[in-house]
Amino acid sequence: MTQSLTIRRPDDWHLHLRDGDMLRAVLPHSARDFARAIIMPNLVPPVVTGAQAAAYRDRIMAALPEGADFTPLMTLYLTEDTDPNDVARAHAEGLIHAVKLYPAGATTNSASGVSNFDKVAPVLDRMAEIGLPLCTHGEVTDSEIDIFDREAVFIDRVLDPIRRAHPSLRVIMEHITTSDAADYVRSNDSGLAATITTHHLVINRNHILAGGIRPHYYCLPVAKRETHRLALRAAATSGDTRFFLGTDSAPHTDGAKLRPCGCAGCFTAPNTMSILAQVFEEDGALDKLEAFSSLNGPAFYGLPPNETQITLRRETPAHPTSIDTPDGPVTVFDPGFDLHWTS
Ligand code: DOR
Ligand code: ZN
């Protein structure tokens, strides 16, 4: 039985760090295991301009614990007013690594997102020209579409038309939750990839709803039926370079989760690597963990993999079940099984 596994240090290609007190509370948990992370721009107000991204990056750097080795890779929040020149400038300066598309109203703080996709065509053209990837929150928002179908419908109604209109645009379908999304990624040879979260490899919709409602498992896109979870496991553990880790670790206080209209998000930063090691081991794919968490992401983003390494050991980890913040406790994602890998 493998007792330890040394891999290049992983990166998190989709992370919510928030701001202020919450940023200070959650950042050390990502910086411990991850060398870099793509930082989501859905603050209130959102990170829309290069100047706002630079200021947010400075706040993240200032919140890092002493001696931490962590690089935030900034993104801009795409709006119908986004200026292609500002995007190109921020990219040329090496400040931003992607632009994030939220369909308006799709999820937490997405009110300034896009309703009319034609309006963002000039920005997407410029991004295609300069090789700056688009990260997508892949769910339609139409109230008549069932929430469990929103990702599959997004592919047909929004994503595929965007990719046809901008064939050289590089796109990352973020936090995919369906076999439809995994198949769509596989059906394209280049320029398209997907991130997969830790929690979507572990839970299906029964975990959220059967035998009682479990708000800490509620996230967006919502977890789907078991066949989809298994399709995600197969994609993540396959070694296919088009699939890589984006935790979507999204902290909300218990007060914000446990109320009549609770927030979407699972906080997985502290225990992701322990959970992933177990998931990959269960699927007989420990040798593919490095590709998923440390190699495929940088390759797609055109960055070198990390030179430093981490060693995972077969040892019961001591993760907190919840962390304290000045705004209240934030519950750490519970995978529902005992963990036996320590990072
Ligand atoms: O579960 C989620 N939480 N999904 C998102 O898309 C946003 C995120 C958040 O910001 O809380
Ligand atoms: Zn997210």
From TrEMBL:
Residues with the N6-carboxylysine modification: 100
SUPFAM superfamilies: Metallo-dependent hydrolases (SSF51556)
Gene Ontology molecular-function annotations: dihydroorotase activity
Binding positions for Zn(2+) 1 per the UniProt entry: 14, 16, 100, 248
Annotated catalytic residues: 248
Pathway assigned to this chain's UniProt record: Pyrimidine metabolism; UMP biosynthesis via de novo pathway; (S)-dihydroorotate from bicarbonate: step 3/3
Domain Amidohydrolase-related: 12-304
Domain of life the protein comes from: Bacteria
Residues noted as binding Zn(2+) 2 in the record, renumbered to the chain: 100, 137, 175
E.C. code: 3.5.2.3
Record flagged with keyword rRNA processing: no
Record's keyword terms, sorted: Hydrolase, Metal-binding, Pyrimidine biosynthesis, Zinc
Stretches of the chain forming a coiled coil according to its record: none
Binding annotation for substrate: 16-18, 42, 137, 220, 252, 264
Quaternary context: Homodimer.
Function: Catalyzes the reversible cyclization of carbamoyl aspartate to dihydroorotate.
Protein name: Dihydroorotase
Source organism of this protein record: Sulfitobacter dubius
Lineage: Bacteria, Pseudomonadati, Pseudomonadota, Alphaproteobacteria, Rhodobacterales
